[in-house]
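Figure 2 data, in text form.
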Amino acid sequence: MDKQISEPVIEHQFLKMTLILSENQCHRFAHIAKEKDIRSVIIILGKGTVKSTALNLLGIKSQRKEIVNIILEKEKAKEMLDYFTKELKLHEPGHGIIYTTPVITAGQIIHNRQEASWNTVQGMEEKSMFKKLTVVVNRGMAEDVMDIARKSGAKGGTIIHGRGTGSDFVEKCFGMEIEPEKELVIILMPSDLVGQVVKNLYQELQLDVAGNGILFVEPVLEVRGLVI
């Protein structure tokens, strides 16, 4: 009798949780993460772009932000989304933003389950009320990206700079390679606003020209702390 081969066991579904916090809030997050035994946290430095009259009067043109990335099992992510929101007071304006995005795991790809996984992600995208827009442009163009996005209805975003001292340096961020002369702009927005913002960015930045930049959109499953 032929031995029956069982189906490979699919890994638990994972989500990527991202927090955009001030330096003080990031310190608080670190204590909470340690208490909850959350490991493998990646923190990237950036700056906020939301306009503030009070900050401008003080001569502060931008705020330093820390972008925290964690990969968690789906159920754990839901639990921690509520917990971090409460402990960091993310329901109050100005305390930070937290959101989750879907992840396709290596196990799902190895076991040829990526098609079903992508179908799941597509279903999530259709139901998502928010989207994450990412634009990679040449150094010095990030503010132009934000100006176009604001005119199209977006409220603000986060800018990440490539860092390094040599031409051979490449920094990996969100699974992407960002050369030192590049800037990455992340903007969260309602789904119904994405089409117009993308259209205006594509046309005004001439993204159809090679080397001018890259733009892509991802679904956001849940978000807290975003001021509409």
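Caption note: The first helix runs from residue 23 to 35.
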